[in-house]
């Protein structure tokens, strides 16, 4: 029931369905993927701050929850977002945090869903789950099939899918569109990597998805546009 934490901070959700919502972010370290566009420093550190308190890593859920309660008014937030890095690396920590804080604030998970079985295991602890479908992973179609199948089984939380896309991802969009239809996922969020995009290509992606019954919303990364975390 410990996790290596990079930082805890108060900010605005910059991506996906709940863009603009105020959240308290708990960023964990470590990730099994090596996304070429990753812009997040999730390197493990000896310690981290919550308000005026310094906690050593790895930190227990009880210590993190207590420090959060002492520092933040949880009524101010849409939710606590567990982000990374990859939070699925710490399933016991997530479960314990839910026991300690979930009755007072909603829980939000940001994940790559790299391990669909682990995603199903932790889902009951969350009100919202944002899953990035990573197009660069090896054997993308097989990975996406397993992940979207798991998402189709999730009943406990409001789950949605983001597609982080580069200008080279036309084939991945076509593969994803067919799989979204297979698993009755009818809405996704298109997220341009580093806010680099061609609007004509975005419209073409939306057209490809629409042919499979999928509504695709194009949402740039708000936090980068306004210069916040």
Write the layout of secondary structure elements.
Layout: E1 2-3, E2 5-12, E3 22-28, E4 47-50, E5 53-56, E6 59-60, H1 61-71, E7 79-83, H2 91-101, E8 107-111, H3 116-122, E9 128-132, H4 140-153, E10 158-165, H5 170-182, E11 187-192, H6 199-210, E12 215-218, H7 222-225
Parallel strand pairs: 3-7, 7-8, 8-9, 9-10, 10-11, 11-12
Antiparallel strand pairs: 1-6, 2-3, 4-5
Defining traits:
single chain; 229 residues; alpha/beta; eight-stranded mixed beta sheet; two-stranded antiparallel ribbon; 12 strands; 31% helix; 26% strand
What would your notes on this structure say?
This protein is α/β, with parallel strands linked by helices and 229 residues long. Helices cover 31% and strands 26% of the residues. The protein has helices at 61-71, 91-101, 116-122, 140-153, 170-182, 199-210, 222-225, and strands at 2-3, 5-12, 22-28, 47-50, 53-56, 59-60, 79-83, 107-111, 128-132, 158-165, 187-192, 215-218. It has an 8-stranded mixed sheet, with helices on one face. β4 and β5 form a beta hairpin. α1 crosses α2, α3 (116-122) runs parallel beside α4 and α4 runs parallel beside α5 (170-182). The two termini are 27 Å apart. The mean pLDDT is 94.
């Amino acid at each position: 029931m410990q996790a290596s934490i990079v930082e805890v901070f108060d900010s605005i959700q910059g991506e996906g369905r709940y863009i603009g919502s105020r959240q308290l972010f708990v960023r964990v370290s470590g990730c099994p993927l090596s996304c070429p566009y990753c812009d997040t420093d999730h390197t493990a550190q000896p310690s981290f701050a919550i308000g005026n308190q310094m906690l050593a890593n790895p930190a227990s859920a009880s210590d993190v929850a207590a420090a959060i309660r002492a520092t933040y008014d949880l009524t101010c937030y849409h939710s606590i977002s567990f982000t990374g890095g990859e939070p699925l690396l710490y399933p016991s920590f997530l479960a314990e945090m839910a026991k300690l804080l979930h009755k007072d604030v909603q829980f939000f998970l940001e994940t790559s869903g790299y391990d669909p079985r682990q995603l199903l295991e932790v889902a009951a602890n969350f009100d919202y789950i944002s899953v990035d479908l990573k197009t660069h992973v090896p054997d993308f179609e097989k990975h996406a099939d397993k992940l979207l199948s798991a998402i189709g089984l999730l009943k406990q939380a409001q789950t949605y899918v983001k597609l982080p896309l580069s200008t080279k991802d036309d084939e991945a969009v076509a593969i994803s569109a067919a799989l979204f239809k297979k698993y009755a996922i009818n809405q996704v969020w298109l997220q341009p990597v580093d806010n680099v995009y061609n609007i004509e290509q975005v419209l073409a992606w939306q057209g490809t998805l629409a042919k499979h019954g999928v509504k695709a919303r194009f949402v740039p990364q708000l936090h980068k546009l306004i210069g916040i975390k």
